[in-house]
Amino acid sequence: MKSKNGQKYTINQQPRGRYCSNTVVAVFGVLFALLLLTTLTLLTLMALQQASNKCMLADTMTTSTPSDPRLNTQQYWGTHEKPHPSMLDADDDYSETNTRRNALAGPDDQAASRAWFGPGANWKDEEQDEAERNRLSQSSGWLPIHYRLIIEPNVERSVINGTVTINIKPNTNWDKTRDQKSSPIVLDVNEIRILSCEVLSLASTKSIPFKAYYGAKNLSYLIEPVLSRAAAGNLSVKLQFESRLSDTLQGFYRGYFPDKEEPDGRSWFASTQFSPIDARRAFPCFDSPDKKATFAISIVHPNDRAMTLSNMEHIGHLYDVGRAPDFVREDFAITPRMSTYLVAFITSNLQLAQRSEGFKPIVNVWTRAEVRQQGSYVHRLTMRLLPFLETYFGMPYHLSKLDLVAVPDFGFRAMENWGLITFRESALLVPEDDNRSSSAKHMEAVASVVAHELAHQWFGNLVTPRWWNDLWLKEGFATYISYIALNANEKRWHMFESFVQKELQEAFEKDSDRNSHPISFPVNTPSDIRRIFDPISYSKGAAIVRMMDSFLGDIAFKRGIHEYLQKYQFDNAVQDDLWDILTAEGHRARTLPTDLDVKQIMETWTLQPGYPVITFERNGSRLTISQQRYLLPSRNSSDDTRWYIPLTIVAESQRAHEPLKVHWFPYENATIQLQIAIESDEYLYANADRAGYYRVNYDYASWKKLTNNFAKLPPLTRMQLVDDAFQLARAEYIQYDIPLTLILVVTQQYRDIPAWAALSRSLAYINNMMSREPAYETLLAVMRSTLRPAFDAVGFEDRAEDSHQDMIHRERVVNLACHYGIDKCSVQAQTLFRRWMTDFRDNRIPPSLKETIYCTSLRDGGVPEWNFAFKRYQDTDSASEKEIILNALGCTVKPWLLSKYLNMTISPASGILKQDGVRAFQAVATNFAGSDIAFNFLYENIADINAYYGDGFSTLSKMIDSVTLLMNKPHHKERFDRFAYKAKQLGLPTIEKSILLAKEQILNNIYWRSRSYHQLQHFLVQLIKDLNFNMY
């Protein structure tokens, strides 16, 4: 008899031997074979890891680098170099196996994206993640000298193929205490697969042995030459790579615009947005602002593209290269020394709209074919602003050409890439024909953006902050100088009234919270870098630059700027470099006391958050002056932050244009005493021209004198009084009777354009807090009664004699009138809109009133008005018109339309561009009828929104900021806490700070409602009784 394992045995006898089935034997055999194969594979990989890698070179290039960044390109790099033999696709089969370190690492269960990463992909322990993130702010043992980049985007497959050769040198400033053999070449990468790599000595051109691996989360590629840095000398690192052509408007990305000439009605383009840290998404590089180098760039693309541009001028081309015979390689001249975030290229079917003739540099404007005429205004403006800036900076524009490109889908308003400035269409294009002419407000906005980007060609491009913690050094200066340039070229625009209304008030709003940050603070992570691009860096940066200009004087300030740019051109600087130069010029001009220096003054403004409120207590001619940090929700004596403050005080009897003395409020003191020459019945005011970055409070008697003499005060001081009064009442420094008195004073002077500008912005917070409260009816009654005379005076129709400011002022008054429900305004708005609906080709709505009329008509209308407006959004080729309609679509009070609109912001099929999604969301979130709907949408779709928009443009942060504006009840806080918890569970580090700020905003709103709401209600009711206003 046989057993089940095949052994013979006799009943009642013990079986002998070991028993094993055939199946078991087979299984063990397979396992042993797999173990043997794995062992051999690991041994092979270890051997290869020690070997030097050879790579396929893009072309043969000389190893010397031009010492002068402006050296003629053709002396260094010929225009007919042989391209890489095959700019390969992702699917191409590489037969040269000896050129690769090892096979591609396959996908694993932690991250499928690892399949993208190539040779030497040794995965570091995840515990290194924090160290890798902090590496952003650390120095490097190697510095780039020159990049030779050939790059080929494939828009159909969202793939980039490229080769880059980076000439590098040892960093002589590297920490001497470090092990000289432990300084790898650290290249920044993000979703880049390295296909091959070779390291050569620049001196001998011999190959250098090395080992290479990816850093934590594949965000760096580390190459460790076997030789020490000193022994290795200058090196050439040659890499072949593959990366992604993104859809998130970051890095090198793709997009399309409508084009009837294309078979599918779409014309694709590929463009770049590398600032702040996204060059690493396109090619391996030292992606840090202090790692400047020169760049020789070539773009491979289909030869049917109408335009291909980069930072420098085109110098040659080669046909029949790349993936197919109909491809061409465009070669561009070598750039000056510059940072990677300023590198740019674009290939598309955009058209040349404007080109300068007989003007240096050559200025070109590029747009879609249908809107070429809309580039004329910016072209004319640029040719006026460039010579002004060259004179102001005491230094010429350094490149031979300047391209301004209206990119059909673009994340920021604009980007200052050196020689190739890219814009969102609405920030560059200005319709000037009768049917679609732009509003004065839009024209000013476009001019401001263009002037800002032109100023960057010096502040930021020529001289670059060493690290992102000093971002304000370029953004604050560019913002301030853009106003100087426009004020000189458009004198009737009164640009510094706009500066006070826009930049200064924006900075104050964002700098009033406990969770605000200093202008300059440690920046260690990608989230830190993206977060610092905010009004603190831009608007507050500009405000403190203006303050410096004021106390140093224009001559000393400009001399300092000239020396700063001359000394650090093509290099990097930190704020201390600027302080030293400005101190010397201030002492030389005797505008700065010898016992003070700019560093000790300005570090109180750049290294700590917030700003002071200066309180004046007057006793005849004797002043007691105190400083305290302005903080919401209420004045707080426990915060002991102090500043060096340049005080200017003006008495009523002081003659116009008389030089003002600067009284320095010491950093060490909370209170000082001053004796001034003034009569007891005279008024005085402080902070002339609102040049200082601080608010001013007065004793009650002084407030009364100023309100009684309001019309006698200078324009900027009138703006300051209105803004300060509302904000001081909000923080409980004064009561609301003072700002309400100013409402009456300002609205009686309907031609006081500066004061109206301040009033319209100051009313926003009160309106947000009261729009869903019982007392809102009282506020409406007061505002209707006070606004009606001004509305009747300015009217609905533009006049031929209207100035730029007149048109902006009419827009402001009419907007307030319609918003607060003056019947005549609403009726006229709807009449004009319905007339347009009868013939959409004939829009007779005045350009300056479109925003108000569209919004009012959709608010008071229904589905037909909404659908008509959305159809106009789809059909118009005016980018500014699109933005106005996007805002108006969020004005409806129909819940289902608002929900539909929000869902369209995350649907590519809706026709709403990614660049415009935030605008649409904000329009709903700031609508009292849409606030809760917007919050629910954000809560339910936060993961989808983050995936759709990416993390490059603070999209989620902007949504969070807007959705909390109307939240002022305890249950709002509870709802937001649940949202914050969900965001944390999803792991979204880029919005951590936004959530903190939003929580503080809600708590401040709750505090205001509990403390100030009833006080304001009382004053409003009393005002109605005293002035006999009609409640209805």
TrEMBL record:
Essential cofactor(s): Zn(2+)
Region (Disordered) residue spans: 62-137
Localization per Swiss-Prot or TrEMBL: Cell membrane
Record-level Gene Ontology MF annotations: metalloaminopeptidase activity; peptide binding; zinc ion binding
Domain Peptidase M1 membrane alanine aminopeptidase residue range list: 381-605
The UniProt record lists the keyword Ribonucleoprotein: no
GO CC aspect terms: cytoplasm; extracellular space; plasma membrane; side of membrane
Membrane spanning stretches: 21-48
Database matches in InterPro entries: Aminopeptidase_N-like_N (IPR045357), Aminopeptidase_N-like_N_sf (IPR042097), ERAP1-like_C_dom (IPR024571), M1_APN-typ (IPR034016), Peptidase_M1 (IPR001930), Peptidase_M1_aminopeptidases (IPR050344), Peptidase_M1_dom (IPR014782), Peptidase_M4/M1_CTD_sf (IPR027268)
CDD domains: M1_APN-Q_like (cd09601)
Pfam families referenced in this protein's UniProt entry, alphabetically: ERAP1_C, Peptidase_M1, Peptidase_M1_N
Protein name: Protease m1 zinc metalloprotease
Organism in which the protein naturally occurs: Anopheles darlingi (Mosquito)
